[in-house]
Specification:
single chain; 384 residues; mainly beta; 19-stranded parallel beta sheet; 3 helices; 46 strands; 10% helix; elongated
């Protein structure tokens, strides 16, 4: 942006001209650096002149060629960084946004931090790319959108809070990502997300629902959740899947699990609503209510183990059936014993059906000449 009366970009001003321009800046004033390349030191001087209080801020297509530090800055209006480029560190540690902030299409060449920041309005990071670590821990957002964002380093959302909905649809996490004690007061949407390494989702709360529909994970996924519906339909996990839930409804429709996996209780009851089309190589479901499930709809049902699950109502409808399947522990020898027992029963049935049975004729009573009864072996003795 050209500066008047110089008619030149801020970065092309002479030293005296730049000093004169900085002297005109006041706290809370609007700041427009769209399309500007910001060299080392210039951003610090601008923020110092504004006493770290910025009004409406526009950094669209701005290039930050050196570390950009917005720590402890307060934006009293909306702030936009759309399609900006950060060649070095981008730090918004403890930054306060009283309106909305947008990082749509931004390219972060190094680390990006919103640790401890506050966004009263909506945060948008749609289609952004972070080449290194991304830190969102202990931050608070009104609502947030990360649609199609790419995170190539470690990502942490530990103890962050989303007061509204948080959408991660189509986001990609190349390295481990953690949501430890994250609070989602609205819905948490991870539809079609790609996890390239371990994903640890252990939110402190989810207000509406947690959706991992059509998510893809090549590494392990660990999910700890209570008090909300969880949708894992059509998700595909190649690593170990561990789900610990309490007071939650789980939808496992067409879930594919290629690692050793387990679904179990975490404090409260869990209800598995559907396992239709479930395809798991080694899955254990423990302590769950399966009364709504249709077991014949499971692919590779012999690889599914149920432990202490409520399955269905009794014929009288008075009590439910709690059982485990198969009834032995999942060791090699116990499985072998189970197969041997089935084989033994089958052989015994075949032998029983092939053995000729003697037909026993029961004696019938006969009447003697004296009017008394006698037993006959099948031939009449005498005549009346």
């Amino acid at each position: 942006m050209t500066r008047q009366p110089y008619n030149r970009c801020l970065t092309h001003l002479e030293a005296e001209e730049l000093e004169a321009h900085l002297a005109t800046l006041t706290p809370g004033q609007a700041l427009d650096l769209r399309g500007t390349t910001v060299p080392a030191g210039l951003l610090d001087r601008i923020l110092a002149a504004m006493e770290n209080v910025v009004g409406r801020a526009r950094f669209d297509q701005t290039v930050f060629s050196s570390p950009a530090r917005f720590g402890d800055v307060t934006f009293t209006g909306d702030a936009s960084f759309d399609e900006a480029r950060f060649d070095a560190l981008a730090s918004f540690f403890n930054t306060h946004f009283r309106g909305n902030v947008s990082f749509q299409g931004v390219r972060f060449g190094r680390e990006f931090s919103l640790y401890g920041s506050r966004v009263r309005g909506h945060l948008s990071m749609d289609e952004s790319t972070v080449a290194s670590d991304a830190l969102f821990g202990e931050a608070c957002f009104g609502s947030a959108s990360f649609r199609g964002a790419e995170f190539h380093g470690f990502s942490s959302f530990d103890q962050a809070r989303f007061h509204g909905d948080a959408t991660f649809r189509g986001a990609r996490f190349s390295r481990p990502v953690s949501f430890l004690k994250t609070a989602f007061e609205g819905a948490a949407g991870f539809q079609s997300v790609r996890f390239g390494a371990k994903a640890f989702l252990a939110p402190a709360m989810v207000g509406r629902h947690l959706a991992l529909t059509q998510a893809r994970a090549t590494g392990p996924v660990e999910l700890h959740v209570t008090g909300c519906p969880v949708d894992l339909s059509e998700a595909r996990v190649l690593g170990r899947l561990t789900v610990r839930a309490g007071d939650a409804d789980l939808d496992l429709t067409r879930l594919t699990s290629r690692g050793r996996s387990k679904v179990g209780r975490r404090g409260g009851p869990i209800r598995v609503l559907s396992i239709t089309g479930l395809d798991a190589d080694d899955l254990t479901i423990e302590g769950a209510d399966l009364t709504r499930c249709h077991l014949p709809g499971v692919v590779n049902a012999d690889r599914l183990r149920l432990r202490d699950c409520v399955f269905a109502a009794s014929p009288g409808g008075r009590r439910q059936l709690r059982f485990s399947w198969p009834p032995f522990r999942g060791t090699f020898f116990s499985r072998l014993s189970w197969v041997a027992l089935l084989a033994l029963v089958a052989v015994a049935a075949v032998l029983w059906s092939s053995t000729p049975q003697q037909q026993h004729r029961h004696p019938r009573p006969a009447v003697t000449q004296g009017g008394t009864w006698a037993h006959s072996s099948g031939t009449d003795q005498g005549s009346p």
